């Protein structure tokens, strides 16, 4: 099962439609916050509230089950700057999740911490890590979990 993950589009949301077309059979489309638009315009997307989301009703966070895996999704702006990863791992364990998707930092990252896979797709508009805009693709096949960051130079849309 493929899960498309994007974050921090900051009102430049055309990419969402492009991703839906490219991954039309995806199991889920996740936006980790800072959409800066009304989420009702994106009915196929699971969207959490970012620190810049004021247009419409958003969930602060959510959890979804994909096969035997549970995914926790948050923007992470309420997590400590210095201890963000530790806080995310703690929250994931509290919620019984083994995967966390988060945004806010505009820095793409995939990192295993203890038994929790952390995925930050970076920003699809304004990256802060010196890299190009990006999104993430998560593939789950039974117990096998693979995540990768896809940068703008590799986009074919």
Topology:
Blueprint: E1 2-6, H1 14-22, E2 28-31, E3 45-47, E4 61-66, E5 69-74, H2 84-94, E6 99-102, E7 108-113, E8 116-121, E9 134-141, E10 144-151
Parallel strand pairs: 1-2, 2-3, 5-6, 6-8
Antiparallel strand pairs: 1-9, 4-5, 7-8, 9-10
Describe this structure in words.
The protein is mostly beta strands and 157 residues long. It has one domain: Metallo-dependent phosphatases (Purple Acid Phosphatase, chain A, domain 2, 4-Layer Sandwich). The protein is globular, with a radius of gyration of 14 Å.
Low-confidence stretches: none
CATH uppermost class: Alpha Beta
Radius of gyration of CA atoms, rounded to a whole number: 14 Å
Structural class: mainly beta
What oligomeric state do these chains adopt? single chain
Overall shape: it is globular
Q: Name the strands of the widest sheet in spatial order.
A: 3-2-1-9-10
- Give the name of the CATH architecture: 4-Layer Sandwich
Please report the total strand number as a whole number: 10
Domain Calcineurin-like phosphoesterase: 1-142
EC number: 3.1.4.-
Keywords: Hydrolase, Metal-binding
GO molecular function: hydrolase activity; metal ion binding
Please give a handful of descriptors for the protein shown.
single chain, 157 residues, mainly beta, Purple Acid Phosphatase, chain A, domain 2, five-stranded mixed beta sheet, 13% helix, globular, MPP_YfcE, Phosphoesterase, Phosphodiesterase_MJ0936/Vps29
